[in-house]
Amino acid sequence: MTAETLSAPPSTPARRPLFRRRSAIPGFGVTLGVTLTILSLIVLIPLAAVAIKAATLSPSQFVAAAFSERAWAAYRLTFGAAFVAAVINGLFGVLTTWALVRYEFPGKTVINALVDLPFALPTAVAGIALATLYAPNGWIGQFLTPLGIKAAYNPIGVTIALIFIGLPFVVRTIEPVMRDLSADVEEAAASLGAGRLATIWRIILPALGPAWLTGFALAFARGVGEYGSVIFIAGNMPYKSEIAPLLIIIQLEQFEYANAAAIAVVMLGVSFLMLLLINAIQAWSRRFV
Amino acid sequence: MAAQPARARHPTEDPAWVKVLVIGLVALFLGLVLILPLAAVFAEALRKGVDVALAAITTSDALAAIKLTLITAAIAVPFNAAFGLCAAWAIAKHDFPGKALLITLIDLPFSVSPVVAGLIYVLVFGLQGWFGESLIDHDIKIIFAVPGIVLATIFVTFPFIARELIPLMQEQGVSEEEAAVSMGASGLYTFWRVTAPNVRWGLLYGVLLCNARAMGEFGAVSVVSGHIRGLTNTMPLHVEILYNEYDFVAAFSVAALLCLLAVVTLVLKSVLEIVQPDVKRGGGH
User: Fold this and answer.
1) Would you call B159 an interface residue with chain A, using a CB distance cutoff of 8 Å?
2) Phi, psi at A114, each rounded to 5°
3) Inter-chain contacts counted by CB atoms under 8 A, chains A and B
4) How far apart are CA A201 and CA A207, in angstroms?
């Protein structure tokens, strides 16, 4: 935006017109037309089908499908596990980013690349690998069983899968902000007598706040919709370890399309709220830059 | 540093014990969450030796799954690349009201559960769907067939390339294109000779991430595929079937192939980030 303002000729009126003078670069009509058409055909119209299908239900049928006791249990698990996973990722994500941005250590390049593994690894592969590791006789599970901890086929398993899925969202969102933190501010704080801990607590963490919240929200939103990595480790017991996306699949398999759409509408509503929240956080954080 | 213990450490530097503690914690966490799962896949795949693993990925069903995965990515990735270039040209090189809303709408598939992404196409093209009957009349199969798998894959990977290109092209501004056009170059010529060379690394970056997701997509594809062996099974779906049949070595062998894809993607991505640091601006999740 600033670059644009600077390069604008001095004759441009100060008030920005709704449509700027016709751009010298051709192809606007065609590319915007194609973009809107494809966006509508691939994304918007099919998404509208969910709402339209759900609207064929009467209000009481909708409530029965979307807010049955079993659905409530699934929402509690889905949102609860996604929240806990996002909190854990929030903590370890900051530590990981701190180590990657501030420290030099052997293997840093590999660690840096590996953080993106959840973006690159198919979710089903992550799912069977985590289930095998954390199962009672698995590499990690065998050490947890004597402690009385069951880490697979229950809500803990769901949370573990969502930790895997969400980590890069937190790290990659706070990383650029942490990199851009000016050393001057820290030096100023230190020279004014602030201890290291006070500097981190009062200066660095507040500056990371908006990015951290965005990363948290992104990880949470992704976790709520996640399916592939979760179903293998979840156990999928109704009322206990059944996630909301699985409930949609079960309805589909019984050809209850309207019921599936009703649950999908609830999930889309939450995704939409998350999207608004993320945009609001980013707009709010821009006020301080 | 050790030779001069008297010298105070720089005020913005953490004490050594803090560094060791943080790096140790991070290593432990990443080890448990990222590295062990990756190692487990290869260990389980090779449990009965390389020959058994190789045999598992060369059965006719596995080969059919590999082929379908490659076909799906070969359609979905170029489609999204073309869309991304088109959208980025309109958004980054021109000014119009509602731009922010359009970018948000393009990002929308990121916040939709993959299962819902599959469901929407079942509702449109499925037997009970909007076009279900007319599709049957014309003997066209979309759901439980390859077109549905391709569509669902396009949906979940829809924003990858666009959101990589839009910020990159916005940052590069319009002056070079305006110069070319003012000297008489056509729009296509300007795109080809001026814009394309500027964005090729960003495009490659987006293509890499898009391809990894396209080949690995599970939830959305699982809803529309129907799981017909040898016909509508992609590699991730084949992994699921083998795993649910307790054929763990075979499941992990196919999974190991997908892991190799992920590792190659990460290596190329890191190389690209080191050689062309600009590509990272877009933030490709």
Assistant:
1) no
2) -65, -25
3) 301
4) 10
User: How many helices (H) and strands (E) are present in chain A, helices listed first?
Assistant: 16, 0
pLDDT by residue for chain A (289 residues), tens only, comes to 444 444 444 444 445 555 555 567 888 889 999 999 999 999 999 999 999 999 999 999 999 999 999 999 999 999 999 999 999 999 999 999 999 998 999 989 999 999 999 999 999 999 999 999 999 999 999 999 899 888 889 999 999 999 999 999 999 999 988 888 877 788 888 888 777 778 888 888 888 888 899 899 999 999 999 999 999 999 898 998 999 999 999 999 898 999 999 999 999 998 888 878 888 887 887 776 5
Shortest CA distance from B81: residue in chain A: A35
Q: Which residues of B touch A90 (CB under 8 A)?
A: none
The C-alpha atoms of residue A225 and residue B113 are separated, in whole angstroms, by: 4
pTM for the whole thing? 0.89
CATH number of B49-275: 1.10.3720.10
Q: Is residue A39 part of a domain?
A: no
Residues of A in contact with B258 (CB under 8 A): 121-122, 125
Probe site for chain B from A128, A139, A149 (most B CB atoms < 10 A)? A128
Interface of B with A in 95-154 (CB under 8 A): 95-97, 102, 104-116, 119-124, 126, 128-130, 151, 154
* A81 φ/ψ angles, rounded to the nearest 5 degrees: -65, -40
- For residue A189, the domain's CATH number is 1.10.3720.10
What's the number of domains chain A is made of?
A: 1
Ordered by start, the domain boundaries in chain B are 49-275
